[in-house]
Specification:
heterodimer, A: alpha+beta, three-stranded antiparallel beta sheet, 4 helices, 3 strands, 53% helix, 14% strand, B: alpha+beta, seven-stranded mixed beta sheet, six-stranded mixed beta barrel, 26 helices, extended
């Protein structure tokens, strides 16, 4: 489901978490979120609109983010997304789950012969 | 009207379109903004405007593709979708009101009956006593062989039966543990007081009372609703006599007069001051929920004044007090028993010197047991528990039948809605979505059924409470969390049970194929599943119908039984003038006075009496005589007893008014007695040895029932009540049949002495109905209601299955008729298959009934649980019902018009 890019495919199911994390820093509009993910990941992840928009809809429907029309820095009207209380809690949970899992996965990947 | 009612729906649809349209517009705007921001961003990083627009387009891809993907997400959350399904279910259920009504009502009856019984069990069997910390309460029992018991009365004897148990103790034991034991600092005693004569405002009442020690109410944490309870200082012999009233009696007798506290009431021959009224929830600790609370509570210290010569406080050998205590949490029951056992031994030793040496040789100190009194002191009546279990089993079977029936209906319905489902699938509904909709529909039915079941539970509980538990303490509580939880769980299990068959069926059929839009013939598997459900339903219903027949016939047999006397047109009541201070001579003179006065009433033809303690049907005093080898029942009766009750004289004579001299005691025996004890001799003139006494047999009368309706007459002998005066008598009035005589009798006694209380006045017929036929009537009523339900459900099952079979196969039937099939063949094809399964159900049901018969054998009377007439009658009834239910769908099948049938799709 996640968008592919020149560098890396996003691991299944992580796009939602990345969006939530981005919004946890500060509210942003659709394009801004995509750009910020790309920038923070130093270009490893590039997310296209076909992936972002369904994700926004899904998160908004589940009550994790909330959209609001505001004026952008370029004096245009844009839809800004912000985390809800529920979204914040979900992010915290997902983040700790993720850390546990990646730590375990990298331990497995680093395992050498003789280790049990 | 129709247009108006459609208006809100139109409005809703419009609003929903509008919401969708707005959401679409929103998405367009957002995409546009995304695009523009991307262009701005790219210009900012140094691209020309044209290059930036191209790059942004490339990045965005086709806006329509993005929009499609967003729309695929679905606009509704899970909650929205379930809500949509709920509305859809309500709409579709409203479209088939008969189906909906049948499902909800049968479900409510099945679940409600079970929840009602659960509420009863919860209210009366399982719930802890409504007192402070009931879990700490302990009561005591004794057990053992050859133990010493009450020895004050003439006929009592040492209990010799193995495993004798009791819950009452001598007062010495209570005083000893109250005086000092560390393990049970808080202890109280309570004892049934029997009936008292309570007079106020020149009106006498017979009330039930309970003797309690001063610590009783404090121990339980019960306080009075007004005034005070009985307290420890009331235990002093010198304390002023006091009495505490129950809420029910205060309402009934004194109309909740608040000025009653402080007033003096005459109780028997004593005067006691009312010091408090207990709240309604203060009941009888000993038999929680099974008996009414006493009308009054009296301090034990007052007992000698009230009972005078018969005082048990002054009889150290009497075992009469129930003892309750509050145990510290860390003390085990076994430790408590061990530490209290010496107190019991000491209490028995202290009075043992008073019994005769021969009795003393047999004395054993019984073993003391401490038991938790959390749910009351005494175990519930085992007979009530048995009846309760039987009802529980019946209700569980009913629920099972209901589930099968609902399953069957739902499955038939899923077939009918096959096309709707197929259409939904064809236009893109996922299988999960379709199944979810079915589950939601089942849940909607479940919720509606559960709501109605609450009402049913309330009705069942309040109807059965008095039939199962005598006069219960309070109304059974239905709206409590445990009952609601139970009802919820039963409903969920039932919904799951009836939902599972249609689901399996659908899964097996591969309903998700769009080719199903066509509809057509019915598959073999689906018919098979429906038939299995129907078979189960009939197999479960038939035993219920058989049970109903057996209970009805039992009731009829008991009503028709020959009790050995003419039980019609009799009025009975009990008098205890001794409670009012009548001495033996005055009491003896009272009865002829009553007889003369009552005989003056028009409609009264004869008046007689028998000693209070023993009477026909209600049980005689069982005595042992002939050196303790034989048992017989004994009744003390007035001289005209046999003529008034119309008990035939077989040999010799009955008592004459002249049989008054105590020096030559005489007895009349019944035929069973004569046959048992004088098999080879002429009974008249023989003697009966009773301890040191000898009774001369002067006559033989016909057998009359002594111990209830069911037991055959035991060997019985009658003594003259004049020769053996005992306190209290039951007066028996023979009338010509006027029911109004009950009130006239009451008035006549009040004229003689307004302070005399009539106890338990009723006609003999009413007494038989209320005392001896109550549980039989309950079973008859209950099992008939239940089997009525089973019959209706069976009819619905047969009808539904056959109707749907015919409806589904209309096209096939049409073709067959067009090809020349005879109606007989069509019938065999449709009705025959369903009825064959029905017959299998009947065979299974008969087998089950035969196997289970012995469970209810003990409740039946005058017929075996395998009674051929009842079995064949019930089977015939079931077949008739099945035939009736099959008639209309069968007629429809034979009248299928081939032209219409083939064209209809």
């Amino acid at each position: 489901m996640a968008g592919t890019s020149k560098s890396s495919a996003l691991v299944q199911g992580t796009l939602d978490m990345l969006i939530l994390k981005t919004l946890a820093l500060e509210p942003a509009h659709g394009y801004g979120i995509g750009v910020r993910i790309e920038a923070i990941s130093k270009g490893v992840f590039q997310v296209n609109a076909g992936s972002l928009f369904p994700a926004f809809r899904r998160l908004e429907r589940d009550g994790l983010i909330k959209g609001e029309w505001r004026t952008t820095e370029n004096n245009r009207r844009g839809k800004y997304y912000a985390l809800t209380q529920l979204g914040r809690a979900t992010l915290r949970r997902q983040q700790s789950d993720w850390e546990v899992q990646t730590a375990a996965i990298s331990r497995i990947l680093r395992a050498s012969a003789g280790e049990t | 009207m129709r247009a108006l009612s459609g208006l809100p729906r139109l409005l809703r649809r419009f609003l929903s379109f509008r919401a969708q349209w707005r959401a679409d517009r929103d998405l367009d705007a957002e995409l546009e903004q995304f695009f523009e921001t991307a262009v701005d961003h790219k210009i900012g990083s140094g691209l020309s405007r044209e290059a930036a627009v191209r790059a942004a387009r490339l990045e965005l891809g086709s806006p329509e593709a993005v929009k499609d993907r967003v729309r695929d997400m679905g606009w509704e959350s899970l909650r929205d979708r379930i809500w949509q399904d709920v509305r859809h279910s309500c709409r579709s259920l409203r479209r088939s009101p008969a189906f909906t009504l049948i499902v909800i009502v049968t479900l409510a009856l099945g679940v409600g009956a079970n929840a009602g019984l659960f509420a009863l069990a919860h209210s009366y069997l399982w719930r802890a006593l409504p007192v402070n910390h009931p879990e700490d309460l302990v009561a005591f029992r004794w057990s053992g062989q050859h133990t010493v018991r009450q020895m004050s009365s003439e006929h009592a004897f040492i209990a010799g039966r193995a495993g004798d148990v009791g819950g009452a103790f001598p007062i010495g034991f209570f005083e000893s543990i109250r005086a000092g034991t560390d393990l049970l600092p808080d202890v109280a005693a309570v004892a049934p007081g029997g009936t008292f004569n309570l007079a106020a405002d020149r009106r006498a009442d017979s009330v039930t009372g309970q003797f309690v020690s001063g610590g009783y109410f404090g121990l339980l944490g019960l306080s009075a609703q007004s005034g005070r309870t009985i307290q420890p200082p009331d235990d002093q012999e010198s304390a002023a006599p006091v009495v505490v009233l129950s809420d029910a009696y205060w309402s009934r007798r004194f109309a909740r007069d608040p000025g009653l506290i402080g007033r003096a009431l005459a109780i028997n021959t004593t005067t006691a001051t009312v010091v408090g009224i207990m709240p309604a929830e203060a009941g009888d600790l000993a038999q929680r929920g099974v008996a009414s609370p006493p009308d009054i509570w009296i301090p034990i210290a007052l007992e000698p004044q009230l009972r005078r010569a018969g005082s048990l406080v002054r009889t150290p050998g009497a075992w009469w007090l129930t003892i309750v205590g509050r145990k510290p949490k860390d003390v085990a029951l076994a430790r408590l028993e061990a530490s209290l056992m010496p107190h019991l031994a000491a209490a028995v030793e202290s009075y043992i010197g008073r019994v005769t040496p021969s009795q003393k040789a047999k004395v054993r100190i019984p073993r003391l047991e401490a038991v938790s009194a959390q749910r009351g002191i005494s175990d519930p009546d085992p007979e009530a528990v048995f009846r309760f279990r039987l009802l529980g089993a019946i209700c569980a079977v009913v629920l099972l039948i209901v589930c099968l029936n609902v399953s069957n209906l739902l499955m038939s319905r899923s077939v009918v809605r096959e096309r709707e489902t197929a259409v939904r699938m064809a236009i893109g509904a996922t299988p999960g979505r379709v199944v979810q909709q079915w589950l939601v529909e089942a849940a909607v039915l479940g919720v509606l059924g559960a709501l109605l079941a609450l009402v049913v539970a309330g009705v069942v509980a309040s109807t059965l409470a008095p039939l199962l538990f005598g006069t219960p303490l309070d109304r059974p509580a239905v709206l409590t969390w445990p009952v609601l939880l139970f009802l919820g769980i039963v409903t969920i299990v039932a919904v799951a049970a009836f939902g599972v068959f249609p689901a399996i069926h659908v899964a097996c059929r591969g309903l998700f194929s769009p080719s199903r839009i066509q509809g057509g013939t019915q598959s073999r598997r689906q018919r098979w599943a429906g038939s299995v459900l129907l078979t189960g339903q009939i197999a479960l219903s038939l035993p219920l119908v058989i049970g109903a027949g057996l209970f009805l016939r039992t009731l009829a047999n008991l009503r028709a039984i020959d009790v050995g006397f003419d039980s019609n047109n009799l009025i009975l009541f009990t008098l205890e003038p001794e409670l009012n201070g009548y001495d033996a001579a005055r009491a003896a003179a009272l009865y002829p006075l009553i007889e003369q006065r009552l005989l003056r009433l028009p409609g009264v033809t004869a008046v007689t009496s028998s000693a209070f303690g023993a009477s026909l049907l209600d049980g005689g005093v069982v005595v042992m005589f002939l050196a303790g080898q034989q048992r017989a029942s004994m009744l003390s009766v007035d001289h005209n007893f046999f003529s008034t009750l119309r008990i035939p004289l077989k040999q010799g004579r009955t008592f004459a008014p002249s049989d008054t001299r105590p020096s030559t005691p005489v007895a009349v025996v019944n035929q069973t007695f004569a046959r048992t004890h004088f098999p080879d001799r002429h009974p008249v003139g023989q003697t009966i040895r009773m301890g040191a006494r000898q009774l001369e047999v002067i006559g033989v009368v016909g057998d009359a029932k002594v111990n209830g309706l069911r037991e055959p007459s035991p060997p019985t002998f009658y003594r003259s009540v004049v020769q053996q005066p005992l306190p209290g008598r039951r007066v028996i009035v023979r009338t010509t049949g006027s029911a109004s005589l009950v009130q006239a009798t009451r008035d006549a006694i009040r004229e003689i002495d307004p302070h005399l209380a009539l106890q338990a006045i009723s006609t003999q017929e009413d007494r038989i109905e209320s005392r001896y036929l109550k549980s039989e009537r309950m079973f008859a009523v209950m099992s008939n209601a239940v089997s009525g339900l089973a019959i209706v459900v069976t009819m619905i099952g047969v009808y539904a299955l056959l109707s749907y079979t015919v409806a589904q196969r209309t096209k096939e039937i049409g073709i067959r008729i067009a090809l020349g099939a005879q109606p007989r063949r069509i019938l065999r094809m449709t009705v025959g298959s369903v009825l064959r399964w029905g017959l299998l159900g009947i065979a299974l049901g008969l087998t089950a009934a035969l196997a289970l018969g012995r469970v209810i054998g003990s409740v039946l009377f005058g017929l075996s649980p395998h009674d051929a007439g009842t079995l064949s009658g019930a089977t015939a009834l079931m077949m008739l019902v099945m035939g009736l239910a099959a008639y209309f769908p069968a007629r429809r099948a034979t009248r299928v018009d081939p032209l219409v049938a083939i064209r209809c799709d």
